[in-house]
């Protein structure tokens, strides 16, 4: 699998190895800003690894509730190159031109400036009336344990740099449908969900999302916006992520490594006999 264009940068470094010193070439994960504009108005700027920029923009619009399907996007394009330099701007035309862009811009600014606070943020998610994930979906724990190996084997940029997050979308049989890498874990998820949106696959009611980092609140929010019933990560979730997953019925799995994982919410989808929680709630 070839890395996307511009996703890698080559640099000269000095290596110390057991007392021996030598100059070597080293690959770095690229990081550049991407501006997303709706019409002529700037919506946000995110730092990302170049590649799959249109999917990133589409996934971000989905996660923020600006669109709910591909029909909400009338046009999506990468801006023309400037002075021969590839563009770092995506231009979006929405099917609904009456959207309040000023309110959207304020929301992006406040989120990036002050972070997320628990009660107010979950209240905002409730007001979006996101549907609960499919309660009838099930996944075998043995299948779940096989997914991280597929993820690692499908990361071309990580294999060269060791410095990227990844998100992968699997179907109910464990077949890999899409994998995206990015220096930001949230961007990797947006790219995968943007791909699904542009392929008209939403809602992803019989799919599994696996992320290489931790399962934070924003990633749970994005999974719910796409209709996913199962979100798994190789690391730990946050307390707010667990609260939201339990409230809206998402199966949240952490520490998926080897033949072990921890289920924080929605045990009934992946365990034959769910054990009730006896400890304190979050």
CATH architecture of the largest domain: 3-Layer(aba) Sandwich
Beta percentage is 25-35%
Structural class: alpha/beta
Q: State the fourth-level CATH superfamily of the largest domain.
A: Cytidine Deaminase, domain 2
Which outline best applies? globular
The biggest beta sheet reads: 6 strands, mixed
Number of domains: 2
Overall mean pLDDT stands at 86
The value of Rg in angstroms is 20 Å
Beta strands, count: 12
The strand line-up of the biggest sheet is 8-7-9-10-11-12
Q: State the low-pLDDT regions, or none.
A: 112-116
> What order do the SSEs take from the amino end to the carboxyl end, as H and E?
EEEEHEEHHHHEEHEHEHEE
Assign the CATH topology of the largest domain: Cytidine Deaminase, domain 2
The CATH C-level name of the largest domain is: Alpha Beta
Measured as a percent range, the helix fraction is 25-40%
How many helices does DSSP assign? 8
Alpha-carbon distance between the two ends = 41 Å
């Amino acid at each position: 699998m070839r890395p996307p264009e511009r996703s890698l940068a080559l640099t000269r470094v000095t290596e110390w190895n057991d007392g021996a010193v030598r100059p070597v070439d080293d690959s770095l994960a690229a990081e550049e800003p991407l501006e997303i504009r709706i019409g002529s108005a700037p919506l946000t700027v995110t730092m990302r690894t170049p590649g799959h920029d249109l999917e990133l923009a589409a996934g971000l619009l989905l996660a923020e509730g600006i669109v709910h399907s591909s029909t909400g996007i009338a046009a999506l394009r990468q801006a023309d190159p400037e002075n021969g330099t590839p563009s770092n701007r995506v231009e979006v035309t929405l099917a609904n031109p009456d959207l309040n862009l000023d309110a959207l811009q304020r929301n992006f600014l406040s989120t990036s400036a002050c972070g997320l606070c628990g009660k107010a943020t979950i209240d905002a998610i409730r007001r979006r009336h996101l549907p609960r994930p499919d309660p009838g979906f099930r996944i075998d724990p043995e299948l779940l344990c096989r997914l991280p190996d597929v993820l690692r084997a499908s990361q071309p940029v990580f294999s060269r740099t060791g410095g990227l997050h990844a998100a992968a979308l699997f179907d109910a049989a464990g077949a890999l449908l899409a994998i995206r890498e990015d220096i930001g874990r949230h961007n990797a998820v947006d790219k995968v969900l943007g791909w699904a949106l542009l392929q008209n696959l939403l809602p992803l009611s019989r799919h599994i999302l696996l992320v290489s980092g931790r399962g934070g609140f924003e990633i749970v929010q994005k999974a719910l916006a796409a209709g996913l019933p199962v979100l798994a990560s190789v690391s730990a979730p946050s307390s707010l992520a667990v609260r939201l997953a339990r409230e809206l019925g998402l199966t949240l799995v952490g520490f998926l490594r080897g033949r072990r994982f921890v289920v924080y919410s929605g045990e009934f989808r992946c365990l034959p006999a769910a054990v009730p929680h006896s400890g304190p709630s979050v």
